[in-house]
Amino acid sequence: MTKLIGLTGGIATGKSTVSNLLRLSGYPVIDADQVVRQLQTAHSKGLERLTAVFGSGILNADQTLNRQALGSLVFSDQTKLAKLNMIMQPLIREEIWRQVKNYQKQQIPYVILDAPLLFEENYTDECDLVVVVTTDHQIQVQRLIKRNGYSQTEAEQRIDSQIPLAKKKRLADIVIDNNGSKEELKRQVAGLIDQMHNNKL
């Protein structure tokens, strides 16, 4: 039987690093962010729906999505953010479960669902186990500013658009704390991989 492990955290907590370590260890990863990008390519159904609601101002000159423009629009307005999710989530969910079913047919023992909105969009209902990557709020803010070039306000808006990490930790089966070094993070992931390898999850 295929077990689906939900992997989430807050933005800039190090979830992608954990996801990559799991992938490098041979475990298939369904990356929700990658699914979103596929669904928002030029002239795609997803992008056409977004443009119909938010206007052509979210497009680059070559008709591809300007993610910064869309982000500035929705993360400063909860109503617009809700509209974005209403448009995209049915398409995202359909593609994710298509991939899950494909792995189930192959009888893959463990599949990772890497999804920032794992709790927000109730993907946890279908997961056998939930892993949450956490870090302190100020570290999260500083990483976002450094990584994405956001202002303090922009970083805070994006963090506030998600369920608080403290709540996610309470709902998790396994918590990976990413306040330390990369080596410490790798040690925690290695422990998770060991449990999977020995079918202890």
UniProtKB/TrEMBL annotation:
Coiled coil (UniProt feature): none
Catalytic activity: 3'-dephospho-CoA + ATP = ADP + CoA + H(+)
Binding residue positions for ATP: 12-17
InterPro entries for the chain: Depp_CoAkinase (IPR001977), P-loop_NTPase (IPR027417)
Entry EC number(s): 2.7.1.24
GO MF, one example: dephospho-CoA kinase activity
Cell compartments where the protein resides: Cytoplasm
Pfam families cross-referenced by the UniProt entry: CoaE (PF01121)
Keywords: ATP-binding, Coenzyme A biosynthesis, Cytoplasm, Kinase, Nucleotide-binding, Transferase
Keyword Nucleotide-binding: yes
Pathway the protein acts in: Cofactor biosynthesis; coenzyme A biosynthesis; CoA from (R)-pantothenate: step 5/5
Domain of life: Bacteria
Keyword Signal appears in the UniProt entry: no
NCBIfam families per the UniProt record, alphabetical: dephospho-CoA kinase
Function: Catalyzes the phosphorylation of the 3'-hydroxyl group of dephosphocoenzyme A to form coenzyme A.
Protein family per UniProt: Belongs to the CoaE family.
Name of the molecule in the record: Dephospho-CoA kinase
Organism from which the protein derives: Limosilactobacillus portuensis
Underlying gene: coaE
